[in-house]
Amino acid sequence: MSLEFIPTRVFYEPGALDYPLGKTLVERFKYMGITMSPTTSHNRITGIPGNTAAAQYREAKRTLVIGVRRSKTFQSCKPSAHYQLPLVTSCPGMCEYCYLATTLGKKPYVRIYVNLDEILGIASNLIKERLPEMTQFEGAATSDPIPVERYTGALKQTIEFFGREPNGRFHPLGFIIAPIFRFEGWQEAYRQLMERSAEELVKRAPSGWSSEQLTLEFISHRFTSKAKATILEVFPNSSLPMVEDERKFKYGQFGYGKYIYQPEEMQEMKEFFQDQAKRYFPLAQVEYFI
Ligand code: SF4
């Protein structure tokens, strides 16, 4: 099976045609024979088929929307960075535990933005506001930008932009291990994951590269009531652990509460991952465990 993301249908905002990338993409998808429809807003897409929530979800994941991002600021992105850098929204993947189940609901169609110069202009302004401090941006906070990179080139352009910005940082090379679950044999399973990651990194790293430049972030599994409702509607047979009584309730930075593991479980997991980090990536920077 091809792992390339080829959308089944594409919507585009007519305003996207005012940008060279928008024009090129619309022509490219037409040439590929993909169904194209104009839409008034990339935030309100109607016409995604499916008789059930599960079918609509699957179809949404195969739907690409080409839009213009109009907001003049970015959302904060604690604890991994100062700001989210919105290159793309959503991801064609269908992981049940995905964080996007909370933020994007049942129709998580993939959105790309053609006004990248304007988006990077906002990043420039935010960097200036925080001078002389360094400002860090996260490019995958509400998306996986990789599957659509072949269409947009947005990551390439962004990496080049940050190469010219002495006070801005795109999130450095690192691993985010998430979500971390507790299950029978979890320690050995995650130990193997860390071991394998270290081996693969050594094989692929460019010469002269050192793991001092690597960051590690660990995020334990958590869920919101909204995510649970969406997940159970879209994946009725889900076996994700989402029993509220087994968890501790905690308010989050965006105003909604979430169910996290109990404090003693969190402590055990934190110590375990700190040990694993020391063992397999002794020079790397552990940014946080949450
Ligand atoms: S963003 Fe990550 S977790 Fe979510 S569906 Fe895509 S690959 Fe899976």
Describe the protein in words:
By secondary structure, the protein is of the alpha/beta class. The protein has two domains: 9-171, 3-Layer(aba) Sandwich (Rossmann fold), CATH 3.40.50.12110; 175-289, pyruvate-formate lyase- activating enzyme (Alpha-Beta Horseshoe), CATH 3.80.30. It has helices at residues 20-31, 53-60, 100-103, 116-129, 149-152, 154-163, 186-204, 225-234, 263-280; strands at 9-12, 35-38, 63-67, 76-77, 81-84, 88-89, 110-113, 135-138, 168-170, 174-180, 215-220, 248-251, 257-260, 285-289. It has a five-stranded mixed beta sheet with strand order 2-1-3-7-6, covered by helices on one side. A hairpin with a 5-residue loop joins strand 12 and strand 13 (257-260). The radius of gyration is 20 Å and the shape is globular. The structure holds iron/sulfur cluster (SF4). The site of iron/sulfur cluster has 7 residues, from loops. Residues 91, 93-95, 98, 100, 144 line the site of iron/sulfur cluster (SF4).
| CATH architectural group of the largest domain | 3-Layer(aba) Sandwich
| Number of E-type strands | 14
Q: Which series of helices and strands comes N to C? A: EHEHEEEEHEHEHHEEHEHEEHE
Mind describing the biggest β-sheet?
5 strands, mixed
State mean pLDDT (0 to 100 scale): 92
**What fraction, in percent, of the residue positions are helical?**
25-40%
Task: Give the cofactors and ligands.
Answer: iron/sulfur cluster
What is the CA–CA distance across the termini?
36 Å
Unreliable spans: none
- Gyration radius from CA atoms, angstroms: 20 Å
CATH class of the largest domain: Alpha Beta
Q: Specify the number of helices.
A: 9
Strand coverage percent = 15-25%
Number of domains: 2
Instruction: Provide the CATH topology of the largest domain.
Output: Rossmann fold
Query: Globular, elongated, flat, extended or rod-shaped: what is the shape?
Result: globular
Strand order of the largest sheet: 2-1-3-7-6
Class from secondary-structure proportions: alpha/beta
